Amino acid sequence: MSGRSILKRIDWLSVFIYFALVLIGWINIYSSTFTDDQSSIFDIGTRYGKQLFFIGVSLVSIVIIMALEVNFYERFSSLFYLISMVSLLGLFVFGKTIAGATSWYDLGFFNLQPSELAKVATALALAKYLSDIQTDIKRRKDQLYALLIILVPAILIIPQPDPGSALVFFALIFVIFREGLPLYYLAIILSVILVFIMTLKFGTVWLIIGLALLIILLYALKRKTLKIPVIPLSLISIAIILFSLSVNFVFNNVFEQRHRDRFGLWLRLEKDPKKLEQIRKSIGYNTYQSEKAIESGGFFGKGFLEGTRTKGDFVPEQDTDYIFSTVGEEWGFLGTATVIILFSVLFLRLISLAERQKNAFARMYGYGVISILLIHYFINIGMVIGILPTIGIPLPFFSYGGSGLLFFTILLFIFLRLDTNRLKESF
Amino acid sequence: MRKILLSLIIVVIAITFLGRLSYLQIFSFSAEQVLEDPAIKAIYDYPERGYIYDRNGHLLVGNDPAYDVMVIPREVKPLDTLEFCGLLGIDKEKFVKKLKKARVYSPRLPSVLVPQLSKQDYAKLQEKMRKYKGFYIQKRSLRYYDTPSAANVLGYISEVNEGDLAVNKYYVQGELKGRTGVERYYEDLLRGRKGVQYIQKDRFNRDIGPYKNGELDTLPEQGKQISITIDKTLQEYGELLMNGKRGGIVAIEPATGEILSMISGPTYDPALLVGRERSKNYTKLYNDTIANPTWDRSIHAQQPPGSPFKTLNALIALQEGVLDVNTTIQCYHGFYVGKKKRGCHCGGGLRNLNKGISQSCNAYFAGAFRKIYEKFETTDEGMDVWEKHMRSFGLGDYLGYDLPFGQKGRIPSKEYYDKWYGDNRWSSSYIISNSIGQGEILATPVQLANMTAAIANRGHYFTPHILKKIEGKDITEPKFTEAKHTTIDPKHFEPVVQGMADVYVSGTARWLQIPGIEVAGKTGTAENFTKIDGVRTQLTDHSVFVAFAPVDDPKIAIAVYIENGYFGSRYAGHIATLMIEKYLKGEITLKTLEKRMLEKTLEAEYAKPYSGEEFKINERVW
Lengths: 427, 622
Prior knowledge:
The complex is a heterodimer of chains A (427) and B (622).
Chain A: H1 3-9, H2 12-33, H3 47-67, H4 72-75, H5 77-94, E1 96-98, E2 101-106, E3 111-112, H6 114-131, H7 140-157, H8 163-170, H9 173-178, H10 183-202, H11 204-221, H12 230-254, H13 257-266, H14 273-281, H15 285-297, H16 308-311, H17 323-355, H18 360-384, H19 402-419
Antiparallel strand pairs in A: 1-2, 2-3
Helix pairs in contact in A: 2-3, 2-17, 3-19, 5-6, 5-7, 6-7, 6-18, 6-19, 7-8, 10-11, 10-12, 11-12, 15-17, 17-18, 18-19
Chain B: H1 2-27, H2 33-36, E1 40-45, E2 52-53, E3 59-71, H3 81-88, H4 92-105, E4 111-117, H5 119-128, E5 135-145, H6 151-154, E6 157-159, H7 162-167, E7 176-178, H8 181-185, H9 187-191, E8 195-201, E9 207-210, E10 226-228, H10 232-241, E11 247-253, E12 258-265, H11 278-287, H12 297-300, H13 310-319, E13 329-331, E14 334-337, E15 340-343, E16 349-351, H14 353-358, H15 362-374, H16 379-391, H17 414-421, H18 445-456, E17 460-461, E18 467-470, E19 473-474, H19 478-481, E20 484-485, H20 493-505, E21 520-532, E22 535-549, E23 556-562, H21 571-585, H22 591-599, H23 603-607
Parallel strand pairs in B: 2-10
Antiparallel strand pairs in B: 1-8, 2-3, 3-4, 3-5, 6-7, 8-9, 10-18, 11-12, 11-23, 13-16, 14-15, 17-20, 18-19, 21-22, 22-23
C-alpha cells in the first residue's frame, strides 16, 4: 500500500480533532507554566517547551505507525504485552520514584512511564485474544482469561502506588461486553457501585426504605400477566441489604482516613460549615481551588494568560491532572464546552469507525482505545469539576507529560492505521 | 443494545459535564469574584488628608507623621531583646506577648508591634533598626490640631466599621473616615482618593508581578486643602467664655451666611481623639451622659427660644397690618388668659412696639399675637399664615447647612394642635405662649443665629455654612450664595431693629453697652422643666440672647443659649456682647464683663437636679 492511499483513507475527522485537542492542551500548559521572564516557546528548560518537544516526538511516532505494515500490530501484540509486563515488573527494581510513586524509568533526558505503554499493549493483547477463532466469550474459562489479561497489569501497577492508572484497565471490560459478555455482569457492577454510594450518602436505613418503595412500585405497576419472581427478588433484596451493611463496616474499619476523607468530600457528607472550611484547606484544597478557578472564568473566560488563579499557582498539578481548570478559568464556559464537545465527537466517531471494521481484531482494538480514552476523560474532568472523587489520572492529549502524550498518540493512531485497511477482512 | 451502550454513555457523560460546568460558570459566576480572588492583592497608596484652615488662613487641622514599629514574625532573627525593648520603651514581657500575638495573627504578614512612636523615640530607633531583622518602621499620618477648640465643628476621624464597608465600597478595613463635623461632611474633599496597585500573588502570597500589567492601577489623588468660615480667634475666645457652662453659641456673618463660630459647651480638646490614648479618651467622653461633651448643642439642642422670638411676632403683626408702631397695649404687670394671669417683668403701663421689644413686655406680645389671629375668621387660617411667616425665617425645619443635620426645631402647625387637642378644639388662647417664645416652639442655637441674621439683613438670609474655600477658591454653590427672602416686607424691619437697638440703650441689656459700637439685641429667659424621679420639676431658666452689630452695617449676628443661666442679659447677654466686641474690635474693653464670664461657672446649678435634695431655682448670683 502506498503512502498516498493511506493519506486518502485515514479518517481525517479523528486526526483533526486529535490535533485540535493537542494544540488546545499545549496552549493551556503554556499558560499554566508561563512566567514573564521566559521567552522562547522552544526553550526545552520550560515545561511548555518540553511538551512541544514531545508533540514533535508524537508526530514522528505517527509517521512510523502509518509506515509500518498493518498486520505488524496484531502479529506482535503478545510480544508487546509481554514486554510491557516485564517493564512493569522491572519498576520494582529499577524504578525511579517521583512524588511517592515508583512509576518511571529514568532515561536521562526524560522519564518513561511503562504503565502508559501497558495500556496500549493490553488493548492490543485483549483484542488479539478475543478475536482469536478459538475464543468463545460465552465460556466462563475464556471470560476468565480475558479478565486476566486486564488484571495482570492492574495488579502490577497498584503497588507503585498508582491506583488511578490501575483503574483504567478495568475500562477494557467494555470491550468484552461489546463482544458478548452477558450484560447482567454490568448490571451487577453498576448495582454494587450504586448501593455503595447510596449507603455512604444516605445510610442503610434510607436504602432499605428506598428498596421497599421500589418493590411496592413494582407490584403496583405490574401487568396481570406478569409473574413476579418472588424468591429471586427477595434474595436480591437481602443481598443488597447485607452488602450495604458490609459497606458501612468496610468504610469505617478497613478504609484509611484519607480514603474516608475523599469519599466524604465527594459525596458532600460534611455539612458543618466550620469543618467544611477545614476540609477546603486540607483534603479538599485541590478540588475547591479547581472549582473556584473554573467558576471564576464565567461564560467568556478571563482570556489567554489572564487567569489569575492559574498564574498564582493556586490549583496544584495544574499543568498535569488539573489542566482542565486552566481551560475553565481562561476560556470560560465557551472553552470547556468546546473541549467536551470535541472529546464527545471524537469518541462517537471512533465508535462508528470501530463498528465499520470488517476485521474483528481491529474492531475490538478500537473499542479498547475508546474505553481507555473515555475513562481518562470521564474521571479526570469529573474530578476537576468536582463531581468525582480525587483520582489522579491525566486528561488524554492535554496533560503535561511525555509518556502520556506519546502513548495516547500511539494508542489512537494504531487504530487509525488499522482503519485505513478496514475493507480487508484479514491482513 | 450492546452497540449503542457506549454511545449512550458518552452522551450522558457529556450532558452531565456540560450541566455541571454551566452551573459553575454561568449560574454561580458573579463578576464580584474578582475582588475575592486570592490571587489579586490590592496595594493602596494613601494621599495625605487635606489641611483645614480658618477664614483668615490660620491653620486649624494638619497632619503629623507617626511611626509604627511593624513586625513580620517569620523574618525575625534572634536579637538583643533587652536593648530593643529599651529603644521601644516597653518591657520585655510585653514585647514577647506582642510578638506572640503577631505570630498568631500571621507569621507572614506584618503586624503592628508598637503603634505611634513619638518623634524622639523614632529618631533614636531609626539608626539601629537595621540590626533587627523582621522589624521595620512604617510611617503613618495622624491628624494634628493647631487649636484646642472647635472639636464639635471639626469632628474627628476613626477607622471604618462593618457598617461603613457595607454602605460604601470605596473603603477597606483599617481605613480612616470622618465621623462628625467638617471631617465627616467634607470627607470626600479632605480624603482625596487612594491610589491602588493590583499585584498578582501566588498561593504562597508572594508577589509575582503586576496584575494585567498595571492596566487597572491608579495614582492617588491628593486630599484638598479647605478653609472654613470659622474665625479661629473668636472660636477660641468663645470657648474660653463658656468655661463651666452648658449651651451653644453660633455667630454668623449676615452678609454671607458664613458661620464665624460655633461653640458647644462643654467641649473637649480635639487632640484627645488622636493617637494612642484615643479609645480611652473617647470612651470617657462618650460615657459622660450628663455633661455630654460629644453632643453638639449648637445644632442639636432644641429648646424654647424665649423672648428673642418676640421680634418675629412683631414683624408678623406689622406685615399683617394688625398693628402699627404706635399701637399701644396695656400691661397689667402681666396679661390674662381667660381668668388666669400670666406675669410680666417689664414694669407695666401702656406699651408700644419699641417699648414692647426693649422692655420685653409679655403682655404687649400676647396682645399682638391675639390680633394676628383675630384678623382671620378661623384660628386655622391665622395659624397657617403665622406658620408660613415663621418658617420663612428657617425655623421648624433643617436649615440645610453643610454640617451634620442637627435638629429641626419646631414651629407648630394647625395639624399639630388638632392632634393634640382635637380638631377645632383649640383657639389662640391655647397657644398664647407661642407669642413669647415658650409653649410648643423649639429652636436650636444655629436657627436663632440665622433668624437674627435675617433681621440684621432686614428680610433675607443666606443658608448658614461652614465651607469657605476649596484649595484657595471661594465656594460658588448657589445653595449658600443665593439669598433666601423672608415673607416680611423689608420696610417693617426698621422699627423692630430700632427696638432691638434700644435693648442696649434703655432696655433689658442696657448695662452691656459696648463703647463705640451700636448693637441690636434681644434678651430671653426660657422656662424649662426636667423629670426628677418621674416628677416634672422646673429648673432655673435658660439664659438666651440674640444680637447683631453694628446696627447699620451688620458684620456679626449671634445667638447664645446658656442652660440654666437665668436672665438673658446675664450669661448669654455677657457672652454675646463680649464676642461681638472681640470680633469687631479685636480686643476687649469690657474687662469687668470678661472677668465675670471667665470666673463664673454654672457647675453648682447643674449639680442641683442630681443632688437628690430640694433646691431653689432662679437664685440671684450677682
